[in-house]
Amino acid sequence: MRRRRFISGLAGAGAGLGLAPVVGGRAAAAPARAPGAPREWQAVPVPDGAPAAQLRDVAAAGAGLAWAVGEEGRSGSTLGSPLALVWDGTAWARTGLAHLGFRGYLHSVAGTCARSAWAIGTDTSGVTHLLAWDGTTWRETDFPGRGRSGTSLTGVAVDPGGGAWFSGRTSEGQLLLHHDGGAWTWLPAPPSAPTVTPSGVQLTPRGDVWLYGVGIVARWDGSAWTELPAYQGLRASITGLLPVADDDLWLVGHDYGVGGPIGKPPGVLLLHGDGSTWQGVTRPFGVGMLNGIVADAQGRPDRIAGWDFWDQTRAHYLRWDGTAWVSERGPVATTPVVMNALAKVPDSDGYWAVGTTSTSVSSTALPHIER
Question: Residue 115: pLDDT band by 50, 70, 90 thresholds?
């Protein structure tokens, strides 16, 4: 789930790895891979709307259909209204959400076609709202535990067959919800029954389902859980997981660490796992955030979206060149550029990245999209 939010206060700094030490240099366990081609990122026009806005997540079904979700009209710590955009192959357009009848935000979206897409939101009371795309707009839908204390959804992924997987938590400690097109099922909890809530869910081409977050990295293979050592940050956020193989995993995010003066930015988290330990990996910048990681068509590491504290007026993407992550920057803007999410466009060499134009809750903050 990727939870996305304004970088309020920018307090804290990077921290070490809970179960394994941060190691300078490249992760020795990462094999050389075919490099992706450099690309020139471009800003894309965004429809007008209320200020104090940001896009938190993006998903693409193909070159002619994509969705982006977030929030607009926030006032300080008071949540605004859900925001949703849809791409029709030519331009982004606003999707009316007044019929939903709640204030808050949308933070996760996934979809494979016009009739198989889901979005997750949270209202001002902290209650989860699950939305299904009907081909034209978003409609609220029911799910087991909806509105119940202790039950929430944090992330969503959709498989090629139209099944949907949701990370979250119930009051009984279950963390994974499955919808097969008809029935809903909360899966048994992992054996260790962690008290944490996963931040997101990721699918692999072979059908495995991964939960990830601070304090949890676990794989569901359809019948049983396999739990891996997890990153244990005190003030961390895990924003993406790429499971290339069981012994080749990438984890991204940021960590504010312990203490630090007000205004100190977070440290970048870029970790490589071999199934038993995690190593910190050399990255082009170390102060800021990484928000989302995607694979290429073969499932290999490809791109990561980032926010670089020392270069705030353009997005700082990372590209896997076969042996290391290298810089790839977006266009220079007249405002800050904070990218919150990244999506690969299926069956193409395209990407969508979404975010906002401010590092704080500001009346000047507007949605920002690049491709």
Answer: confident
Per domain, the residue ranges of the chain are 43-370
Pairing of strands 248-255, 236-245: antiparallel
Are 224 and 189 spatial neighbours (Cβ–Cβ below 8 Å)? no
User: What local confidence, expressed as pLDDT, does residue 35 receive?
Assistant: 58
**What is the structure's pLDDT at 127?**
97
pLDDT of residue 63: 96
- Judged against a pLDDT cut of 80, whether residue 22 lies above it is answered with no
Q: Is 278 exposed, middle or buried (0-12, 13-18, 19+ CB in 10 A)?
A: buried
Residue with tokens 């389902």: 209
User: Tens digits of per-residue pLDDT, 186-197?
Assistant: 999 999 888 999
Report pLDDT for 97. Answer: 96
137's tokens: 């707009």
Cα dihedral value 109, 168, 200, 106, nearest 10? 30
Count CB atoms within 10 A of the CB of residue 207: 13
Amino acid at 138: W
**241 closest CA partner among 206, 267, 269:** 269
Give the integer Cα–Cα distance in Å for 101 and 124: 12
CATH topology (fold) of 43-370: Methylamine Dehydrogenase; Chain H (2.130.10)
137: exposed, middle or buried (C-beta count within 10 Å: 0-12, 13-18, 19+)? middle
- Convert 13-47 to b/e letters by CB count within 10 Å (16 or more is b): bbbebbebeebeeebeebeebebbeeeebebeebe
pTM: 0.91
Q: Exposed, middle or buried by CB within 10 Å (0-12, 13-18, 19+), for 315?
A: buried
